[in-house]
Amino acid sequence: MAKTTRSKAEVKAAKAEAKATRKAASKQRRSQLWQAFQIQRKEDKRLLPYMIGAFVLIVAASVVAGVFAGGITMFTLIPLGVVLGALVAFIIFARRAQKAVYHKAEGQAGAAAWALENLRGKWRVTPGVAATGHLDAVHRVIGRPGVIFVGEGSAARVKPLLAQEKKRTARLVGDVPIYDVVIGNGTDEVPLAKLERHLNKLPANITVKQMDSLESRLGALGSKVGPAAMPKGPMPNAAKMRGMQRTVRRR
Hints:
Distance between the termini: 46 Å
Low-confidence stretches: 235-251
Helix content: 55-70%
Structural class: alpha+beta
Strand content: 5-15%
C-alpha cells in the first residue's frame, strides 16, 4: 500500500514538474516574442500601421458581413473576424521581421552559413567545407534534391572552390545530383533572403535513407579548412536577431 502511495505521489510530482516546465517555456517564448516585436517596432516604422490597418480592416469586414447576415451568423462572424485579424497582423509582423533579419545579415561573412543552419526541414548542413583567406566559403547541404554546395563571398574566388568540391564529391556520390549556388545579387546568383525558397524548389531526387548514407560517406571527406579560417557568422546585430527569427517561426 505504501509503495502504491509513493508511486502515485511520484507520478503526481512528475506531472507537476512537467507542467511547470511547459509553463516556463511558454513564458520564455512570449517574452522573446515581445522583445522581438519591440526591436522590430523601433526599426520598422511601418510595422504598427500595417498590423493595425490589417486588423481593423478584417474586423470591420466581419462586422459588416455579420450585420447583413443577422441572427446567429452575426455572433459567429465577429469573433472569427477578430481572430483572423489578429492572425493576419501577426503574419505581417513575422514576414517583416524575417525580412529585416536577412537584410541585416546580407553581405556579411558567414551569413550563408547562418541562413543554412536556420533552414526548416530535413537538411543536413556542413558549414565551411572549403574557404579562402578572404573569408569566402563553401558550405555543403544534403537534402532530398541531393548534394548542394552554397558559396558565399567573391564569385571569382568562390566558383573555383565550388568546382573543386563538386569534383571530389562526385567520386563518392555516384549518380546523386550535385547542385551549386552562389549567394549574391548578381547574374545567376541567389539573394540570401531567397536561399531557402531556392533550395525548396529543387526537385526531390533521393530518399531520407539515402541522405543518411550520403552524410556518412561525405563525412569522411572532412573539411579542407580549420576552424580558425572559417567566418564566424554575421555581425553581432544579425546574430542577436537569430532568437527572434526562431521565436517567430515557432509561433
